[in-house]
Every structure is written in C-alpha cells, then in structure tokens.
Specification:
The structure is a homodimer of 370-residue chains.
Chain A: E1 3-10, E2 13-20, E3 23-27, E4 29-31, H1 44-49, E5 55-58, H2 59-64, H3 68-73, H4 76-81, E6 87-90, H5 93-98, E7 103-105, E8 110-113, E9 120-123, H6 125-135, E10 139-141, H7 153-173, E11 180-185, H8 191-204, E12 208-211, H9 220-230, E13 239-242, H10 248-256, E14 261-263, H11 266-272, E15 275-277, E16 284-286, H12 306-310, H13 313-322, H14 326-351, H15 355-365
Parallel strand pairs in A: 4-14, 5-6, 6-10, 10-11, 11-12, 12-13, 13-14
Antiparallel strand pairs in A: 1-2, 2-3, 7-8, 8-9, 15-16
Helix pairs in contact in A: 6-7, 7-8, 10-15, 11-14, 13-14, 14-15
Chain lengths: 370, 370
C-alpha cells in the first residue's frame, strides 16, 4: 500500500505527496541514508531538524547485525531508530552487487559470505521481503540483480530476466498489505532492455518504481542519457525513485525527467571528508582549505542549520585540522540540511511553474566542475 | 576579577555562585572538557542542554593549533566555540607534565617539542597568561609544575618552589583585570608542602585556587587523604577547584571536604568507550555487554537527556557493535548530562542540609567497585 498523489507538473517534473502508515512525504524528496539504522553523526532530532521527511535503511546490514528479529523486539525499525516518520529499506541487492567477488548467484537467490564473520548467507527475493516486513518499514524494495554497466547486451538481458523473475516472486511474497513494495528497473545502458524492464514491472503492479543500475561506474553522461528516455517509460501515476543518486546536479537532471525520490550517501560521506555543499556561484567548498583558516563567515550564509547559525568556517576548518569528530558531524548536518532545502526549492519551483529556470541556474553553477 | 558568593554550607561542603564577565555558574559545578575548543561529539546546543554552565578549554592545545591570535580573530574563545557562558582555560602545565620525556625545565620556563610537528616551543608563566588573555577566557590558570606523585620530599619541595615562583610571576603578568586568575597548589602527597603551597598562594591574592597534582597516578586513598587536610587550608571565601577529577565517587569526596569546581574527561572518554554512568544501585554499565542486546530500557530511566528520551539500550549497544559514531556521541551526551544532574543534586542536598545523606548513599553505590 501507499498512496501517491501528483499535485502539480512542470514539463516532466512533478511534485506530489506519498502517504504511508507513518505519515506523508512530499516529492521530489531526498532520503538521508541510515545504513545501520543511524544517519551517520546525527541524532534523530537533528535529522528531523534538517527537514528530512523520510529516511532510508539497509536491509542487508540490519539483517546481519543486529538481525531483523532483534530490531522487531526493539520496537521495529521506527522504535529502534526513534524515527516516527516514513522509512524505506533497500533490498540488499546493491550490497550483493558490491560483494561481486565473494557471492554465488543462482536462479533461487544469492549465496555470499558475511562481510563481518565470513558466515555463509543465502538471500532470496522472498527472504528479502520477509526481512523488510519484520523490520517494519513503510516501503520495501524488491531484491534485484544489478549488472555491471559494461556488460554485453546478452549478459545484461540474462541478468534482467533474473531481476524480473525475482520481482514477480517478491510481489507474491508480500504478506503485509500496509507495506509499500517498489519494483526496480534494470537493463544497463540498453534502451531496449530498459523499456522491457519498465513495462514488465508495471504489469506486476508495484506501488512505485526504483530505477536501479545507475551511478554504478558509468560516465555521468550515460546516466543522463538513460534518464532522458527511461523515466517516462514508467507509469506516470506512480512514484519514481532513482536509487543511490546523487549530486545536486544529478538531482535536477533526474527531476527534469520526472523522478520523484532520491537517496545518496553523498551529503554525509562528503561531509565527513570536509566537503560542504553551499549556495552561491560555487556548488561546494572544501573546508580543509587553508584559505578558510581565519574566515568568520558561516559555511553558507543562506542556510539556517545549527552549524551555519553558530560556527565560522575558521572554527570548522580547525575542527578538521585537529581531528575533532564535531567537524564531520557539523558538515554532515549542514549537507543534509542543504539537500533538504534544495529539494524544497525544487518543489517550490515546480509549483510555481519555474522549474526550468531553477534547472538552468543549477546547471550553470556546475559548468566548471568536472 | 570574578566574584564568589557562598550561599550555604553543610559541614565543609558549600554551595555558591561564581560571577564572570560571561555570566554566573553555581557551585559545586562540573566543567565538560573542550580541549581543542570542542566538547567531543557534542555541538554547542547539546552542551547547553546537558545543563553545563561553564566549560574548560586547553591553553596548550589552542596555542599550538590554531594559535591564540587565530582564535581571537574568530571572535575570541566565546565566538570561536559559540559558547557564550563562562569559559576556564588550564595553563598548559598539565600537558607539559605529560610531555615529561621531551621537555626541558628551567627557572625561566619550559622548553618542549610540539606533539604536532616537533617544533621547539618555550612556555613561560608570563606567556601562558598572555595566551589565555588573548583567547579571551573568563578564568585563567597559572602555569605550574606538576611533580610525579612518587617524588622525594626534597624534589617535590624544589618543584613547589618553582611553582610558587611561577605563580607570583603569573599574577604580575596579568594585564586584563576582567579575567579571573587562579593559583594552583602542588606539594605532592606531603602535608607540609601542601600547607606551604596553600598559604603562600593565598598571600599572592588569586581569585580562586586550583588543587593540582592529584589524580596523576597515586592510589585513590592517597588523593582522598590529601583532600581531607588540604582543601580546608585554602581561603574559605575563595572558590576551590580540584583539577582533572574525577568519578562521581571522587566528586562527593571532594565536595565533602569543601571543593567547589571540577573538570574531567571521564564523561566523554568513558562514553566513547561504551561506559554510561547511571542512577540506581550500580554506578555505571558497559553498553557493549551482550545482556543489553534486546533491552528496551533507556540507559537511565531517571535521565531526561535526548539519548534517554529516544533510544533503547539495545539500539545503543547496536551502534557500538557496528561502529556508528552516534554511539559515542549519545553516551558522551548522556554522561555529561548525568554529571550535571549529579552536581545539581549535590547543590540541592547542601542547600537542604542533607549532603551527608547524599554522600553516604553515593559511597554505598561504589562499595563493590574497585
């Protein structure tokens, strides 16, 4: 279950509302990533303060530690994380893809060794759905197989067949009708396979659609090319989620093509390494740069996050220089706030039929960035 | 400057108020440690929420990085840290003590190698005061020499002579009358030297007195023994600060003898390693313990900190198991809140003439702890 209402469109871009058993979120939206049930460095009140409306957790990681039954006993994923709003979990498919060397794929599922203790694990589409239902998430993703972007047509097609088969099995496996279940499209960089993927998934009748297999090593132009034809192949009335993407630049590109939902580790990961996304002519800065040593400016004078309200660039640079954990915490907080503000501006610009201007301005900011 | 008013006494224990140019703090009080200008893992609003009224920073660390002039340019220590309440800085004496192997002590001062780049640094009593004035702290400490606790009487006396000489020079060196300057007593475990230390410092006329050279490796009973005779040797009307101490057990012992102020890294350091101080029969727990894996209880059901309001012991254990930084953050936040609540209870018990009962109950909690 889960209900998606489109409120306004501006070209292919649209804004809407998705409803779950734990409340609504507006689209386009960005989910901070809480892989192991924690958005790195932020307590749950700080996550809320960023403006986040939905968060993501990882099935694979929570399955291995602490285990879905433990999460359930600790108040399901909402009580566990203390996040009372919507929560989406990925299926573990991407992690299985990342474990390429140490996994064995069969029609039935995927066998691999735990990254923790080397134990043999066997994940099937049915088990992935069951784990996600036990966690108690609002939106579950089907288990998919993500092919490398440089695979041949024949191999990518073979992989897609498996993904589609798993999608059907996942759909049948759902027991809890209150939990949304999203299919995931694959097909690499092959238009024909992408189209088939979208069509066959649509027939199954999912509550929404993830676009998988992008931002996995292919050149960025290739990703934009797929978005240019593939997003519109998905049912217009359903929510569309571009998985694991991306920079603000990527996000406006995807929204332009009709994507509604995103997740990415960039705001927290980049934050931990000193990169802050900012307003103004430059899209980001590296706070470790010596030029900020005596700067009294906040990271971003247009931002109202705790970091920007209290701290100077000079102080933040100092924190990174001396290795204080508050530095990564503050840049993560700022970056997620920046992303949430960015999504709000996107929604506003769509509502006011000004998205094309917003898009053009954002592209300009990234012109000289490689 | 700085004004200390004693409001109520209960035996040797007393409660009072110390006023600075950045507001007051109640005594007995505990200062969270912000060595490099950050209380580890807590943003400044979270520090405030613990109930902290004054924080401590380290002269030695800020001198080397980012340098006191940079701190000044970034809004002095208050603008730099975004803490608008009272701030006390230590003098660097303890750090010089810790660098024992790579320092050279003379009558004039101490030469040592920076722990960062090996550069030769020379710290004098005058320079320490100047650095602290430049930082803009409310309370500065004099540079002292902290002898090892197993030194002979003759060597400890020689060291004390140097400390007293440096104290006089520090007093003369102060330029800013708005900044409080505290002397520091030494004398190791020798009653005669402790007494001389207290008397000679009192004659100089400091605004308050640090008790130094304790909790530096001596058996805990030896520290309690020194406290039993030494605290009362200090001027009754002045604030007394036991430096670098300690556990809740140590704190009640010191308050019983008339100590007013404390600082210690224990709440944050222990928190980073999974120890949480709690109410109830046991004084603390180790959250990594397997027995907490499925516990829905908060760390401390009597605590109202963000960690205890939102998170279960099971979730917190999970954070430590998987190495999420939120674990150390939350236990640090809880422990500092616990310490602040503890100090408030001490003040209340003194006000109500019930400190002896409070003391007895606390001692009982620690009976079976080594």
């Amino acid at each position: 279950m889960g209900r998606f209402r489109i409120i306004h469109s501006c070209g292919e871009a649209r804004c809407g509302v998705y409803s779950t058993g734990h409340g609504e979120f507006e689209t386009p939206n960005f989910m901070p990533v809480g892989t192991r049930g924690s958005v790195k460095g932020l307590d749950i009140e700080r996550v809320k303060e960023t403006g986040a409306q939905i968060i993501l957790v990882n099935t694979y990681h929570l399955w291995l530690r602490p285990g879905q039954q433990t999460v359930r006993k600790l108040g399901d994923i909402h009580g566990f994380t203390a996040w009372d709003g919507p929560i989406l979990s990925d299926s573990g498919g991407y992690q299985v893809f990342s474990l390429k060397g140490i996994r064995k794929l069969t029609r039935e599922g995927v066998e691999f060794q735990s990254h923790i203790d080397g134990a043999r694990c066997f994940l099937t589409p049915e088990l992935s759905v069951e784990i996600q239902e036990t966690l108690g998430v609002d939106i579950a993703m089907v288990l998919d197989e993500c092919p490398a972007s440089d695979l041949s047509f024949a191999d990518t097609e073979k992989s897609l067949n498996l993904t589609l088969d798993w999608a059907r099995r996942s759909y049948v496996a759902r027991r809890n009708p209150d939990m949304s279940l999203f299919g995931i499209t694959q097909g690499g960089l092959y238009p024909e396979l992408r189209k088939r993927s979208a069509e066959e998934l649509a027939e199954i009748g999912f509550d929404g659609f993830g676009i998988g297999g992008l931002s996995v090593g292919e050149p960025i132009e290739k990703m934009y090319e797929v978005l240019s034809y593939h997003v519109s192949e998905l049912p217009k009335a359903k929510i569309r989620y571009l998985m694991g993407v991306g920079t603000p630049r990527d996000i406006v590109e995807a929204v332009k093509n009709g994507v509604d939902l995103f997740d990415c580790v960039i705001p927290t990961r980049a934050g931990r390494f000193g990169r802050a996304y900012i307003s103004g002519p430059e899209p980001y800065l590296n706070i470790k740069n010596a030029c900020f040593a005596e700067s009294l400016e906040p990271l971003d004078s247009e931002c109202n996050c705790l970091c920007c309200r209290h701290y100077s660039r000079g102080y933040l640079r100092h924190l990174f220089q001396v290795g204080e954990m508050l530095g990564p915490q503050m840049l993560s907080l700022h970056n997620i706030t920046f992303y949430q503000d960015f999504m709000r501006k996107i929604r506003d610009s769509i509502s006011r039929n000004e998205f094309n201007d917003f898009y053009a301005a954002e592209i300009k900011r990234w012109e000289n960035i490689d």
